[in-house]
Amino acid sequence: MESLMPFLFSSSSWPVLPFWLLMLFWPRARLTARVIGSPWIVAGPLALYTALALPRLASLLPAVTHPQLASIAGLLGTPAGATLAWAHFLALDLLAGRWIFLDARGRGLGRWVTTPVLLLTLLLAPLGLGVYLLATELGPRLPAIASGLGRLRRWLAATHRPLARITIASTALFVASLLLALVDHRLVTGAPVWLKPAKFGISVAMMAPALAWILDQLPRDRRLHRAGTAISLVAGLELALITVQAIRGVPSHFNYASRLDGALFSIMGVAITGLWLGELYIAVRAFRHRFATPARTWGIRLGLVGALLGGAVGFVMPRPTPAQRASLRAGQPTPIVGAHAVGVPDGGPGLPIARWSTVGGDLRVPHFFGLHALQILPLAAWLLERRRRGARTVVALGAGWIGLVVVTFIQAMRGQPLLAPDALTVGLALLVLGVGLAIAWVVRTGSFRISVDPRSPPIAARGPRPS
User: Fold this and answer.
1) Whole-model pTM?
2) For residue 149, what are the CA distances in angstroms to 168, 320, 372?
3) How many helices (H) and strands (E) in the chain?
4) pLDDT(452) > 50
């Protein structure tokens, strides 16, 4: 029987090929409709699978009832196992193609949709099925999606243009990094080389439109416009340098392995300082301005405070660790100066995607929570601003969020993983929770009044945006 496996494998595709040809090249023929309408078109691979599986049930059942990578790999690594799996693929791929063909006919979809999807399903069935499901889900919503894209395009044209451009560029970097990660499997400090450009890309893609929206609420003068432009330029420079280091396959942060690496990291440090100072200026102006509603006022103000705190955490990361200080004092080569982790080396065990350390402290935790206060708190304000006590609720949420940044910073500096807090960290978290609940109670009783600076001009008094 084993000697027949090469023949069975090479000839197993022939029984399903005519049905694929009918669906691909003669989809409108009556014969195609009649033939594909029967589920028994998979009889060929089913028969082959049955003939191969029944004599091997004693070895197959343990492998499929308690699947382990080693046992499945061993099973598929034999000629009989590979032929068995191929018959499995042929049958189920054809059933998936049949369902797509019949469902598309029922929806009245043309060949320009079904033929490429069926061809993809023939080659890579899960991808073809996924593309078809996505297309049929999005199809009825295309007018609404087009309308939303139109509104987005108009907003990008009307808002702060440099921030709009860096939003588009950072989104493109995020998508490109994900695609490159599929083909480039290099690692840097234990993480995929394109993970850092992807994370920074999506972070800037969230930060820039939030700042553009805030600038739209503020008086439109040249100083604010220049602050937004400066933030856009230094963010773009930061992304470019991180991408260059990813292409080179070396760490982008804390890297002094060569003069070039040290110079690039120093430039990034200057750039991020400029970005932080730009946000500080916008925050000062926000605290002197009255926005459309009290909820929006406090959501923007506290969101900027959180972002400044999160950004300030970044200035702690380049400090040398004790081991690095000892190496520097001894005059030894020290290619890495600074770290995200506290108490453990960077690149150790970490949480999925974020890579936050699971064995030591990690300054990226408060850094993350702080930076994204810029989106969370203004969004909460936008959702709550029409409620009677919306502003007070936003203040309570903002106090809790900023408290979270402070608590996770203290936890990280004490060398504790995020998911393994000790009694002190839990106590601080409970204190923050208590402060938030106290503010919420004061809000509920109505004894807390939030006001804004009456000297600040209303939104209607803003002038035209500078060019």
Assistant:
1) 0.70
2) 13, 46, 24
3) 20, 4
4) no
